[in-house]
Design brief:
Elements (H helix, E strand, L loop, with lengths): L1 H4 L4 H8 L3 H9 L18 H15 L4 H9 L6 H38 L7 H8 L1
Amino acid sequence: MESDQQSLTIGAVAKAAGVNVETVRFYQRRTLLPEPEKPYGGIRRYAAKDVARVRFVKAAQRLGFSLDEVAGLLQLDDGTHCDEARQLAEAKLADVRQKLKDLRRIESALAALVRDCCTRRGKLSCPLIATLQRQ
């Protein structure tokens, strides 16, 4: 029975997936989630697979994948593209490692500036402000 399988409203999908209704609509506009037909005089009905898809998108986003990258992963969802999915994940991992390296450099520079701020006394200019003005 189709109606048993397609029994969720958009609000129920959003609640089950832990997002708001506008997120579901946004995913539909981005073609990450199909929009069910709306029966004449009725409301659209969704299936449990739609909840799973929204959860997939959110999980991928938490791992740092952009929505465009998520769309690419969804295209590989038939189970026969593990190598392609792995390559996307490897590229994302390399990107994350580069960002971590950049964040460590930023942390070190800020820590040094904070130390300099703490050691300066009197009417000397603030090392943090002076450094930023030189940039």
